[in-house]
Specification:
about 350 residues; Methylamine Dehydrogenase, Chain H; 2 domains; four-stranded antiparallel sheet; 30 strands
Amino acid sequence: MRLWEVEGGQCVRVLQGYASTLYDLDWSPDGKELASVGSDTEVCLWEVEGRKPPRVLRGHTWIVYGVAWRPDGGLLATSGWGRSIRLWDPTTGSCAQILRDLDHPDTNFFGVAWSPDGKLLACGTVLQGVRVWNVTTGSQRGVGQAHATWILRVAWSPDGTRLVGGGEDGHVSVWGASEGTQFLRLSGHRGPVRSVVWSPDGRRLASGGGREGGELFVWDAHSGERLAALQGLASVLYAVAWHPVGDRLISGGSDGRLRWWDLQSGACLRVREAHQGKVQALKVSPDGKRIASCGDDGAIRIWDVHSGEHLRTLRRDRPYERLTITGIRGLTEAQKASLRALGALENEADE
């Protein structure tokens, strides 16, 4: 936030928060690590058990919006507003390759996703549809450029034959992976589609977004029929994950809460306080037992996907991490709140 002197037009002061927003995260194929990206331009590799500080990969020059581990674990792709996608060797932490949109060099990128066989990499863009690279040959092509919008998230079908993208214009589009033909263009969202996800069997799609109140829709992935529109979300949807067992979804919203949904009844089964600010991303672990969330507060929280129990928080140390302020006199409530936000502990509940 900038404070300006009105008459002269001079910036008097710049006020900055400490926490960097985390926009996306992904599990390593073996489930032992998590990769996260966000507003501080850094790529962090976390040991899931939380015994070590994260490894930090540097190279991006602007906000990083997307991260995806190649299915074999050999490469990590990150994408953002620095007009490039970086491919990293997760073992050494070195940047193995930089991809750019050769047809539109000024293109910035959003969410990124690998095809199930690890040969193709798709990424949403600003006004250029979805770009798809064959990482082995280096060739690239455009998909969905007929309807210019911001494609915020992309996802491959489980069999790798189709690609779905969620747009700033409120549409969900499904394309053929090989030739890029548009199969479906689904309408109904009244605001940006911020999350798209396939059901494990590839028969349905879930999309989340909207504006006030939020929207969570379930679609037939072949006919395009809208099968469900879940109500009572109480916040704008930013993240959706398909529950690994049963007919359920998990959502994360602008109110910082996670919600478990039953698709048959449309009922909200469980609500968990997760983050200060928006929940930006949700990913289920490869073994289907845990789910990781990240958001505006710069933290990663790991949950038991079945019970909703909070298992662990991963966070880089803040200025007053683990400082005990219990019993300290002379602090106002506002000062205590600020210290807690920066890592201080006032009582056991804060831990």
